[in-house]
């Protein structure tokens, strides 16, 4: 009996040890890399399901695939009935469009293309005439979705582009896949957008992630801080490695497309990190805040209970930070 009990104890300890070693899946998808780390008592073979998620996302919403639903819509096909992924993202984007006063706008696709920053380059000079003519078709309030998943546009020329939320949504789908398998401790990441649940059982701690220090002149790769996530998601957006200096004030700025005017502006927001319950929300808000003036971004962030933020910006040559109270609590000294 003692030997049998000892064998059971050893088997139990081995099983526990196995649980503290993460299973890892990684690769390329959505134009970037992805990684899943998770802990499970069972060895899971989920690569086919991971590939299926990315295939569905691409076929639904990739502007880089000619026969995707969104590409067909943008080419003028009014018969396309979008799938549930497209519908979910469309409706969530509507909410965030309203909450950000129009700064998150999936209809700026052709403006982005005009400046050569999108999936295609328009053969038009980016001047006031071309910008103003395209802005007539911009505005997510000019687009709706019917109960049977048809997209209705006020102007057929309106171009849709969900790149500002798609990676985050993909992360959520990976998280939901793991949760459907009974996984309670994981980190899912696509191109730096992250969703977590439970703990990192290898370290025995909650999931902890670094926030880059944007002082790139030293090129040290040091961190501005470490944030602790508790069943939360994190998205970061930044142009701080591509800034210029104002010759008069000495202030750093980055060229950003203002979705409300269609023109590039000098922005002093260097980096935005957003914590939310889901990664699609964090991704979309991070996209929107980067296009705003710092003070307006602060005001909107303070009025949104669903997100916490960490802004790093330049003020006359000095790096400044702003943290919401929730983000500050999540930071580790």
Quickly list its features.
T-fold; 2 domains; alpha+beta; 17 strands; globular; single chain
Protein model, in words:
By secondary structure, the protein is α+β, with helices and mostly antiparallel strands. The chain is built from 10 helices and 17 strands. Helix 4 crosses helix 8 and helix 7 packs antiparallel against helix 8. The longest helix is centred in the N-terminal third of the chain and has 18 residues. The N terminus is likely disordered.
Summary of the model, kept short:
This protein has 333 residues and is α+β, with helices and mostly antiparallel strands.
**Radius of gyration, CA atoms, in whole angstroms:** 22 Å
Number of strands: 17
The top level CATH class name of the largest domain: Alpha Beta
Major sheet: arrangement of strands: 1-2-5-6-10-14-15-16
**Fourth-level CATH superfamily of the largest domain:** ApbE-like domains
Give the number of domains: 2
What is the tally of helical segments? 10
Structural class: alpha+beta
Residue share in β-strands: 25-35%
List the helices and strands and how they pair.
Blueprint: H1 2-19, E1 23-29, E2 32-39, H2 47-61, H3 69-74, H4 84-99, H5 109-114, H6 128-135, E3 143-145, E4 151-153, H7 163-180, E5 185-190, E6 193-197, E7 199-200, E8 205-212, E9 223-229, E10 233-238, E11 244-245, E12 252-257, E13 264-267, E14 269-276, H8 279-290, H9 294-302, E15 307-315, E16 318-323, H10 325-330, E17 331-332
Antiparallel strand pairs: 1-2, 2-5, 3-4, 5-6, 6-10, 7-8, 8-9, 9-17, 10-14, 11-12, 12-13, 14-15, 15-16
Helix pairs in contact: 2-7, 4-8, 7-8
